[in-house]
Amino acid sequence: MSFAAPLWLIAWAAASGLVIWLHTHRPEQRDLRVPSLILWKRAAQRIQGDAKWRKLISNLLLALQLLALTALGAVLARPSFSFESSRRLEIVVLDTSASMGARQGPNGAVRLDAAKNRAVQLVESEHAPRVALITAGAKAQLALAPSSPAAFKQALGRAQSAAGPADWSDAADLVRTLIRRQENTRVSVITDGDFTAEEIAPLEAAAGALRVERVGSDLANVGLVAFSARQSGQSFADYQLLATVQNFGAAAVDVPLRITQGEQVLTERTLHLGPNAKDDVVLDYTYSGSAVVAA
Amino acid sequence: MSTAPDALLPAGFMQKLDRLRLRSHHAHDQRLGEHAGRRLGHGIDFADYREYQPGDDFRHIDWNIYSRLDRLFVRLFAQEQTLHVDLYLDCSASMRYGEPDKFLYAQRLAAALGYIALREGARVGVSRLMPETPVLRVFGRRNLARLFAFLSGLDAQGPTTLAPELRLRAAEGAAPGLCVVISDLLTEDDWRTALSALVAQRKEVHLLHLLAPDELKPGARGRLALIDAETAERFPIAVDDMVLETYAQVAAEWLEEIQSFARAQRIAYYPLTTGRPVEALVTFELRRGGLLQ
């Protein structure tokens, strides 16, 4: 609870003190010479029976006066009650760019799954009562309007990575829309990518304070963005394999590419990819029975 | 504290008093005096005839009537009678209250009544209602100065002792007459029985109840230590509107109770306050109550 005019609280305290003092203060006794006490004693005797009632009435008056003062002070101080905890909103911007579909680590875990786990941890650790989810793929989408953490988990489960880079500018517009409706918000971005300052600037401008959670290793942000096979030539067994590798990072990297069929290595080479560059690898392949080709 | 004799009755007030007379209904003694009473006897002013009865003085038989009517009648004469006026003044400390104080009023009232009484040839006694104090008894106009000097020299102090003094006067069994008691009656003693005793002695009692206006409706408020003027007893009390209202109610009931007692005892009761001039009290209130005419 806060007060718009807290000075009135001081005035209220002073006035309450004054009222209590006036009720409890006994002025100094004054001597008064009277011709006789006879009539005074008779009057005092008569009102003695009413003394208890008078004291009760006096106490009631004190209570009423204090109550009135409190009400007046409360009105003048203009209190405001904020339900901050229940109104707080956590906005999670989840990077669903193509690179989030990459596997990494010894277990070959997909980055998006790691990002989802991190998002759940984040929401649980913040005890945010309401959470919104924005997926930032090639086109940013509001995956979940402000809702409960349970709904957030469900929405998070439906999120998938898509081809193409994350559109941070689009995501910034959504964040701005949500923040406009909500005063107490915090924006967290969970991403694997390294992005330029210009790319993230709109989101930072929209969110104010932006928290960036990174998932994935320190490996370059490189992904297999296309891998397909097509029949070629006269024979049904002649195929061409196309593998497209893209570097989403800002620095040039050397990327090892290996295409296998079962245990057999079809090709293995190193691709040199410049910043945000991609390279297509076309490989002739002869079908020799059911097999799984992997790149 | 004494009062200058001149301050008691200013000259202008005396002129007004000269037009007033005491109105006594029955309280005369049989000694010759200047006050024309109703009693018929050995006076010089013819009053009436009455048929002769054995024992009547032959010298009062009207022989002219006997010659005409052949019946004996005696002449009756109005007897000049002496009126006794006893003035009782409450000289307790409570009378020294008010502005001007009640005791000055009492002195002036007594002076006015004494002046009228002496002018009419009445025998005037002035008693302080205090134990073992001398009583002034004067007769005749030449003693007016003595009366005034006595009244001027009186002072009010000490507690009220109405009842014992009035009982003492009643027990003296003096001749019937007018008794005028001037007091604020602020005492718990049994003055009612004493006044009844005076009435029983064929005294015509007039009770002048003198109070200051703020004794009936006081205005002081706050935490007070009331100090009794007579006993110096302290009585702490928080006075507010409710207390003042109750006091006024008690005072009104007290006056009503005294009035009822006086009516029952055939005592003429005059509730007077120092809020009005003495002249108004004498020329209006005492005339209306029947003490003067």
Overview of this protein structure:
- The complex is a heterodimer of chains A (295) and B (293).
- With 295 residues, chain A is an alpha+beta fold.
- Chain A is 38% helix and 33% strand.
- In chain A, helix 1 runs antiparallel to helix 3 and helix 5 (111-126) runs antiparallel to helix 6.
- The two termini of chain A are 61 Å apart.
- The model of chain A has no long low-confidence stretch (mean pLDDT 81).
- With 293 residues, chain B is α/β, with parallel strands linked by helices.
- Chain B is built from ten helices and eleven strands.
- Chain B has helices spanning 5-8, 11-17, 63-69, 102-119, 144-152, 162-172, 191-200, 213-216, 241-264, 278-289; strands spanning 28-29, 35-41, 45-51, 73-89, 123-128, 136-139, 178-183, 204-211, 222-228, 234-239, 268-273.
- In chain B, strands 1, 2, 3, 4, 5, 6, 7, 8 and 11 form a nine-stranded mixed β-sheet that branches.
- In chain B, a hairpin with a 7-residue loop joins strand 5 (123-128) and strand 6 (136-139).
- Chain B is elongated, with a radius of gyration of 23 Å.
- In chain B, 40% of the residues are buried.
- The model of chain B is unreliable at 27-34 (pLDDT under 50).
- Classes of the chains: A alpha+beta (295), B alpha/beta (293).
- Chains A and B meet through strand 2 and helix 2 of A and strand 9, strand 10 and helix 9 of B.
- Strand 2 of chain A pairs parallel with strand 9 (222-228) of chain B.
Regions of chain A with pLDDT < 50 over 5+ consecutive residues? none
How far is the first residue's CA from the last residue's CA of chain A? 61 Å
Cα-atom Rg of chain A, whole angstroms? Answer: 38 Å
Class by helix and strand content of chain B?
alpha/beta
Query: Most extensive interface: pair and counts?
Result: A-B, 23 and 36 residues
Instruction: Evaluate the radius of gyration of chain B.
Output: 23 Å
Helix and strand string of chain B, N-terminal first?
HHEEEHEHEEHHEHEHEEHEH
